[in-house]
Specification:
Number of helices: 3
Oligomer: single chain
Order of helices and strands: EEHHH
Helix content: 40-55%
Structural class: mainly alpha
Number of domains: 2
Strand order of the largest sheet: 1-2
Radius of gyration: 21 Å
Strand content: 5-15%
């Protein structure tokens, strides 16, 4: 795969050129990729804000995923 880095006048990387064949493969594997830069819906933003507020008020709520897996194994 031959990618090309695009630079601005100062030499800063500003983008990547992907050959169309590669882009087609990516789109087939990830059909929603063209929506990746779309804004979140308001209900999604509200949900994130609610969860962040709950975590701020009680930081002990955050635990490693490993703890959840351990707890689930105990219930089996």
């Amino acid at each position: 795969m031959k990618l090309q880095i695009v630079h601005d006048e100062q030499g800063k990387n500003t983008g990547v050129f992907i050959p169309i064949e590669v882009w087609t493969i990516i789109k087939n594997q990830y059909p929603d990729i063209e929506n990746a830069d779309s804004d979140l819906l308001q209900w999604e933003k509200d949900l994130i804000d609610t969860r962040l507020e709950a975590i701020t008020q009680n930081p002990a709520r955050i635990q490693p995923g490993k703890n959840l897996l351990t707890a689930l194994k105990r219930k089996i």
